[in-house]
Amino acid sequence: MDRRSSWLKGVLDLLVLAELTEGESYGYALAAGLDEAGFGRIKGGTLYPVLNRLEEAGLVVAEFRAAEKGPGRRYYHLTDQGREVLAEQGAAWLEFDTSVREVLKKGGVR
Amino acid sequence: MNYLDELATLLRERGVSEDRIRSTTDDLSAFLAEGDLDPEEEFGPPTEFADDLVGEEGPEPAPESLVWAADSFAATERLNELGAQGWEVDRVDRFGRFVSHRGEQPQIWEYRQEIAPGRRERERSLGRLAPEGWEPAGHYFTFAYFKRARAALVGPAAELAERPEPTRKRFFWSPAGLLTIGIALVVLVISLYSLGGTLWEGDNADRVATMAGAGVGALIGVGAVLGVFWLVARVRNR
């Protein structure tokens, strides 16, 4: 696993929750949003297990909607619990990020 | 069978409901269509993807464990022998056995046995040895055990490329250990025989005095041994 993948593994669930704060979305649109944000193409094999875990934990709710043409899609939206977890864990990540920055700065990384 | 059909079968085998399977495969199919993607490349091998979807990551491999014992004359050598095979002692149990484990990426461990009766002497021993990288690995009766990861001295070179199978033997005796136990048993038998004889032949007053004498004698004996151990520990930990 390259370094970026292992970083992403620790934060992908929070990124997905954050993406959903703007309203409901579905798998491909979430992957495209993260790509646009600079995380690169996140494969379905990585994204869907995360979505399933979030759904099982009650942090998102999924609703399947049949399409007039072609296969239906599952739309995800954030629950109140999801918002709480995002606020709490997001703050913890930022704290972690600050510590990393400080140490790297000390090490001469600019 | 195409990828999504195969995935549906695998999800069914994992107890996922038909409704859920249908909505999952539909959703994944829409995902693939929207990006014009190849399923195998996008989702990986179907079996692994099915496991990931139902959250079966598989249990972490349990570390190998080993519980073994050695007499105090053989302990240091055996500890280091097993340490060289990657076994780390976590504690010494109440029977004096070494409870140890070996992780996924074993590394070499070194051990020391120190005479240290009582908590204070153990702390003194630790104070003396900690600067050299030693940490406590457990204690039993008058002995304290310390371990040190070889990596503390040589870095990654301490990692083991192989994991040799442990021997079937779980108790290691040394000739000196066997001799000491033998002598102790002979002394015990002679003492009990002599004590029994005196109790058998004497009157009531004699019996009480004999028992009291035997008790005091035993205490003095144990005290003398502990005293010698304590003195050795004090001198070494000075």
Which topology of chain A does CATH recognise? Arc Repressor Mutant, subunit A
Rounded to an integer in angstroms, the radius of gyration calculated over CA atoms of chain A is 16 Å
- Write the CATH architecture name of chain A: Orthogonal Bundle
| Tally of individual helices of chain B | 9
SS elements, strand count of chain A:
3
CATH superfamily of chain A: Winged helix-like DNA-binding domain superfamily/Winged helix DNA-binding domain
Please estimate the helix content of chain A: 55-70%
Q: Uncertain runs of chain B with pLDDT below 50, 5 residues or more? A: none
Weakly predicted, low-confidence segments of chain A: none
Instruction: Going across the biggest sheet of chain B, name each strand in turn.
Output: 2-3-1-7
Globally, the shape of chain B reads elongated
CATH class of chain A: Mainly Alpha
What does it look like?
The complex is a heterodimer of chains A (110) and B (238). Chain A is α+β, with helices and mostly antiparallel strands and 110 residues long. Helices cover 64% and strands 13% of the residues of chain A. Chain A contains 4 helices and 3 strands; from the N terminus they run H-E-H-H-E-E-H. In chain A, strands 1-3-2 form a 3-stranded antiparallel β-sheet. In chain A, a hairpin with a 7-residue loop joins strand 2 and strand 3 (73-78). The model of chain A has no long low-confidence stretch (mean pLDDT 92). With 238 residues, chain B is of the alpha+beta class. Chain B has 3 domains: 3-53, no CATH class; 64-173, no CATH class; 177-237. Helices cover 53% and strands 16% of the residues of chain B. Chain B is built from 9 helices and 7 strands; from the N terminus they run ααααβαβββαββαβαα. Chain B has a 4-stranded mixed β-sheet with strand order 2-3-1-7, with helices on one face. In chain B, strands 4-6-5 form a 3-stranded antiparallel β-sheet, with helices on both faces. In chain B, strand 5 and strand 6 form a beta hairpin.
